[in-house]
Amino acid sequence: VQLQASGGGLVQPGGSLRLSCAASGFTVDYYAIGWFRQAPGKEREGISCINSSDNSTYSARSVEGRFTTSVDNAKNTMYLQMNSLKPEDTAVYYCGTAPFICPLPIETTPFNTWGQGTLVTVSS
């Protein structure tokens, strides 16, 4: 059971990135897939979540309207499309899975499988 996150990098303010999270050893059907980020010196923050059973999505206010999460069940892969990036979006981004449905607010507690994290740096 493994999640592999990828797609991070350096981007200028206002730019875009798409993160991927590939699952192996299990299928993401009927799981909630969450995206979290952790900036230096700060706690891990839940920013987006999708229920793979019905594709309902939830976003934190800090990213609402800029970030979109999706899941490709056939590829067993989840995505986080990040647009209009800001310097304050700089962080290590993690994907995780939780049983059944997204917790609201999006918090780490029910997530029991995590990817390794991918660094996103927004800077000119």
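(ticket continues) Second input and output from the same batch:
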Amino acid sequence: QVQLVESGGGLVQAGASLRLSCAASGRTFIMYFVGWFRQAPGREREFVAAVTWNTGSTLYADSVEGRFTISRDNAKNTVHLQMNTLEPEDTAVYYCAAGDRRGLRSQGDSYEYWGQGTQVTVSS
């Protein structure tokens, strides 16, 4: 099993930046990729970004491409999501997730392990 704990959420104004972190523990050696998803009230969960653990290959949703950057620290089993130029539309609960096998990184079904989420609120 893999345990994931997110941190770094908060309330910011539009245009500001936040850095989310996801700390992984347990059987971290089985992680194939780690992703971030978000869910706003009344909306479905949506993919944000993902990184393949061994290669560092990244994938982004069109809505965050160029504003968000995902990175991983293999030694610390931590994944970060640097979010710049935040917009009110980015307001959501952000979840970290990990998958232990090949799959579509943008699909939630490809992930077996999920964190509890961290709230990000962007005011206009």
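Agent notes: The chain is about 0% helix and 50% strand. Residues 2 and 26 are 5 Å apart (CA to CA). Closing as not reproducible unless the customer responds.
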